[in-house]
């Protein structure tokens, strides 16, 4: 009699239904695939956007396993996955593209030329992700070595770290000495945005949130000034720049209120960077909400070289993710707490299960 090894996974099985924690057979890696034994998987606000999505809103076929922020070690490798050893530890680069276009060829899979025709946005977003004991990664090129970095740190860095890094790196030429930026929403992404701004730019950082504990986290992350969202937050931000306005706004909320606030706070020639998917709209007219010379951008996730840079920053101690850890069996309550605004920093699932290596 052969025993089939089982492995827990948190799956979206039907649109609009709560995700289900189920037992699956441990997958066998084929071709270039690598089987990762998951050590940690972060929970992102985007997971809630997926769970809340209407059936025809996203192109992802169900069922699939959630989890797009993953770190772990190699449990097995397919026959064509060369140069990889069982036990090696990696962070998973999540925004898998087609793997063939010009963008994917240089590791900019987040802007894959064929994104519009793919039925996934990446690991855990239409393809099986890492809120599980095991995860199949299609190719070794999506794995970034982490050495002895704590997995609960490495996992959130693959999105909550990488996405702000990508957004900030695009502006480092502009964010010189004497500049000021605003970070709106100091959750998983926002608190790392503040740390990254402090690590790679000389900018002064103003942080805005609706929660006092998030502002305390902003302060610990290096923010120079923190303020609760209020009707006159635009004035508060302008006053902090002697009326000039801020050079850039990184909006990690993206609702009507924060987009309007960001536009109001901006200096002429400034950058409004919308990262949050909070459903808000900003109507661009001329003249309109944006100042003269204003730029609006919509960065998505980040590139492979940027993930290497983020992991390197963390390994030298310059990034510190504030985490709340949960076992995989408590995934539902972790999701509920995130929805209720009761997570400080990043919630991270730490799957525990029988068998370290198959
Ligand atoms: P999070 O829940 O960890 O943090 C959000 C923070 O915003 C919280 O601290 C919350 O208190 C604060 N907030 C809520 N309403 C606010 C308001 N009106 N004013 C100021 N602060 C407010 O979320 P997260 O995981 O950091 O994700 C942030 C957003 O970014 C989400 O919409 C997510 O879907 C999106 N996201 C986008 C990308 C991308 O590639 N563009 C990648 C990851 C996440
Ligand atoms: Zn995410
Ligand atoms: Zn591609």
Write the layout of secondary structure elements.
Layout: E1 6-12, E2 20-25, E3 34-43, H1 45-52, E4 64-65, E5 69-77, E6 89-92, H2 102-105, E7 122-123, E8 126-127, E9 134-137, E10 143-145, H3 151-169, E11 180-184, H4 188-200, E12 204-209, H5 212-220, E13 225-228, H6 233-239, E14 246-251, H7 256-265, E15 266-274, E16 295-297, H8 304-315, E17 323-326, H9 331-339, E18 346-349
Helix pairs in contact: 3-4, 3-8, 6-7
This protein binds nicotinamide-adenine-dinucleotide and zinc ion (2 copies).
CATH topology of the largest domain: Quinone Oxidoreductase, Chain A, domain 1
Indicate the CATH class of the largest domain. Answer: Alpha Beta
Domain unit count:
2
Oligomer: single chain
If you compute it from the alpha carbons, what radius of gyration comes out, rounded to the nearest whole angstrom? 20 Å
Quote the beta fraction. Answer: 25-35%
Shape: globular
- Supply the number of helical segments: 9
Query: What's the helical proportion of residues?
Result: 25-40%
- The assigned structural class equals alpha/beta
- Say which CATH homologous superfamily of the largest domain is assigned: Medium-chain alcohol dehydrogenases, catalytic domain
CATH architecture of the largest domain: Alpha-Beta Complex
Terminal CA distance reads 18 Å
Tell me the series of helices and strands, N- to C-terminal.
Answer: EEEHEEEHEEEEHEHEHEHEHEEHEHE
Largest sheet descriptor: 7 strands, mixed
Distinct bound molecules: nicotinamide-adenine-dinucleotide, zinc ion
- Unreliable runs, pLDDT <50, ≥5 residues? 353-358
Mean pLDDT: 96
The number of E-state strands comes to 18
